[in-house]
Amino acid sequence: MNLNFSAQELQFQREVRAFLADNLPAHIIAGTANNGSVFVEKDIALEWQAILVKKGWAVPQWPVEHGGTDWSPAQKYIFSKECYHAGAPMLIPLGLLMLAPVIMAFGSEQQKAEYLPKILHGEHYWCQGYSEPGAGSDLASLKLKAESDGDDYIVNGSKIWTTHAHLADHIFCLVRTDNSGKPQQGISFLLIDMDTPGVTIAPIITMAGDHEVNQVFFENVRVPKSQRIGEENQGWGYAKYLLEFERGGGFSAHRIRHELNNLRQLLADAKADNVAFDACGDMERRAARVEIDLKALEITELRILSSVSGGANPGPESSIMKLSATRLEQEINELSVDVLGYGGFVMNPVPDGNPVRADYRSSVVPRYLNNRAASIFGGSQEIQRNIIAKMVLAL
Ligand SMILES: Cc1cc2nc3c(=O)[nH]c(=O)nc-3n(C[C@H](O)[C@H](O)[C@H](O)COP(=O)(O)OP(=O)(O)OC[C@H]3O[C@@H](n4cnc5c(N)ncnc54)[C@H](O)[C@@H]3O)c2cc1C
Q: Which range among 310-319, 340-349, 375-384 shows the weakest confidence by mean pLDDT?
């Protein structure tokens, strides 16, 4: 694979840099640097999404007919890299990168026309209703019941760990429509308006002190059958398709490189403050280890990118990306906490003439605490290893 960019691609890189310099607002950069959670704040994400939509660059992954771009794999790669390098936030992927590919692949023409433009323009904010109490890794044992009643389903039960359910206006849900066969055979995929009578939300506060996840209850919730994706009882296939995009649809390596750069800055500051800092070089060695593994992840992502751009979906290899990206990010989180020591407990940063860096410092410990969950959400590390063993290595 030739990893050098062509003259045209370098010209595109300059165009992207110029656009970011002119259009990425300072408060969005600061809000991103300050963020200690999985997603940036909804308002920030939607503001940046609107700027990108105006330019036609919000979802390079989508086909042009739905508002995507006709960029080559290299252009998508450059764009993603430049965005993170400039300090832009990741757009919230729940609708844009997780649900939308499912609608494009399996939704009716009416569903495509109804939902895709609203996802693109941020009019619909989605959350994911997969997990239940008693159905996480063993997702196929889910019980949220959808009983047929004429043209509708009546939905009863609950979903748990639902990220941003309290901010979302819609939820895509896996529901049980048949109990007679294997668990995987009786699942359907429903799109539900959160305002439907009978939907209630209870917050779950995490150890980082964040309100990101929730339990969502459904009591006799009436959902039109026209809001089902694809065939009844075939939802398991659509659900797995979505998970490939959740685990490996984007470029984590660029985001992690940005975090590694922040870590290197923390290391440099600590050394400048204290000449004896890390005299035996242990921190430097750990950072170098991350650098090496990150390079390997970058190459893996490029390989997967070229197959996705050829029309394929990410495939079970996306589990490799999820596994490696999580491990590297958590290693950076731990190292950053170790570098800051007690300094990491600064909750109200003291202005030092560099507001972005001060804010970043105060977000290190919340980010460390919050990101412990990355080993669990989107399928735990153990489950990713099982998938790699079976589907990639054929063991
Ligand atoms: C912060 C956060 C956000 C989340 N957001 C969402 C969301 O928006 N929507 C949603 O639907 N879900 C969400 N989840 C739920 C997440 O997908 C589940 O927590 C996850 O799938 C694990 O399920 P569980 O919690 O039931 O743990 P369990 O499945 O009970 O697993 C417990 C432990 O056993 C291990 N284990 C289980 N089975 C096996 C096996 N076969 N082999 C080896 N080890 C195994 C697991 O790795 C884990 O360590 C979120 C979770 C978190 C923490």
A: 340-349
Closest CA to 369 of 322, 333, 342: 333
Lowest model confidence (mean pLDDT) among 38-42, 251-255, 347-351 = 347-351
Residue nearest to atom 23 of ligand 1 (CA): 136
Q: Which residue has the tokens 């490029």?
A: 302
Least confident of 76-90, 299-313, 372-386: 299-313
Q: Return left, alpha or beta for 134; rule: phi > 0 is left, psi -120 to 50 is alpha, else beta.
A: left
Pocket of ligand 1 (CB under 6 A): 127-131, 136-137, 161-163, 213, 373, 376-377, 379-380, 382-383, 386
Residues 334-349 pLDDT 10s:
999 999 887 777 654 4
Strands (E), the chain: 126-129, 145-149, 152-160, 170-176, 187-193, 199-205, 211-224, 228-229
Instruction: Give the single-character DSSP code of 88.
Output: P
Q: How far apart are CA 101 and CA 247, in angstroms?
A: 13
Strand bridging mode 211-224 / 199-205? antiparallel
Question: What single string gives the DSSP state of each residue in 281-300?
Answer: -HHHHHHHHHHHHHHHHHHH
Å from CA of 216 to ligand 1 middle: 16
Query: Nearest to residue 163, comparing CAs of 213, 215, 98, 99?
Result: 213
Catalytic residues: 246
Pick from 329, 313, 171: which is nearest to 246 by CA?
Answer: 313
- Whether the CB-CB separation of 372 and 296 falls below 8 Å is answered with no
Ligand 1 closest atom vs CA 94 = 8
**Which run of H or E residues covers position 81?**
helix 73-86
- pTM (2 d.p.): 0.91
Q: What are the DSSP calls for 235-258, one per residue? A: HHHHHHHHHHHHHHSS-HHHHHHH
